[in-house]
């Protein structure tokens, strides 16, 4: 009998503890991981938005939200097949027919130039440009033009794209340019003598550098556009369950697979949740008129202090201009 009571007590205690633990984890997930959402109800009828890397992940959900608000949305994707599937997804989810795919490979300056000249010919305006596409932790490889892949795609590709579209973005002001960076930028640094890692390549160091460059680019661009009505933003979207980890070494994936699901349930956002800070910067009234800042969790945040050195932001701009022949 004593044993039975003891057992009952144990079972009850266990159930209460499990309940408290599950509630605690859910609360942690809700407040610490998911965070704020873009709660702006702003409509975008008659506006044009471009989202790079919109065939999957954060970009696809960003495109869906913009289409729901009535914008004409251009999904700028390197893979036309995946891009077409995303167009169907966005059309279905938004009920809008004003959604198109355009081929853009950010690892090719020729592709960026072709994309931009077609957009300038075909579109009357560009109200929102979202520089979202990115690659992470790739093995050492080069873009078509010989740039290290992560720096070339994540930074230089978007740098050229933005500059080629800039006049039309200015004509459409008030307009916004949003560049998706990462928390990883805090670990980044620049070395103007070897920006492309010709020596001692590290896939993580290179990703972090490219994301630091995203923050510095948005800051310098914001300065250069002061008084034009075009505002710029860089941001960390959170940790999101997407395809971004595709270049992680297969061995690591195999080792972590059994624990990845519970970890990602607890620590990662869904792509829809991950799109919120991008959307907040792109459409919200709260972000209106604020330029050059770094955002996280739908709020202004403090970036890596290296990103606040104006001289280096300018130097990075000039270096990038030379690389892409602007
Ligand atoms: P995904 O890998 O799911 O999506 C990345 C997108 O970028 C894909 O559409 C991909 O196209 C596209 N892309 C890659 N290379 C090129 C290229 N050369 N030209 C055109 N498009 C290209 O990742 P996320 O949605 O997670 O990432 C979006 C952004 O968010 C990235 O900039 C990333 O650095 C940033 N970020 C993501 C975090 C996360 O936890 N997921 C955390 C912090 C930042 P394709 O499918 O053809 O490869």
Automatic annotation (TrEMBL):
Q: Does the keyword Membrane apply?
A: yes
Alphabetical list of InterPro entries matching this protein: NAD(P)-bd_dom_sf (IPR036291), SDR_fam (IPR002347)
Has UniProt tagged this entry with the keyword ATP-binding?
no
One Pfam match, by short name?
adh_short
Spans traversing the lipid bilayer: 12-33
**Residue runs in coiled coils:** none
A molecular function (GO) held by this record is:
oxidoreductase activity
Q: Which UniProt keywords apply?
A: Membrane, Oxidoreductase, Transmembrane, Transmembrane helix
Name the PANTHER family for this protein: PHOSPHATIDYLINOSITOL-GLYCAN BIOSYNTHESIS CLASS F PROTEIN, PHOSPHATIDYLINOSITOL-GLYCAN BIOSYNTHESIS CLASS F PROTEIN-RELATED
State the similarity comment. Belongs to the short-chain dehydrogenases/reductases (SDR) family.
Instruction: Report what the protein is called.
Output: Uncharacterized protein
Q: Which gene encodes it?
A: 100640577
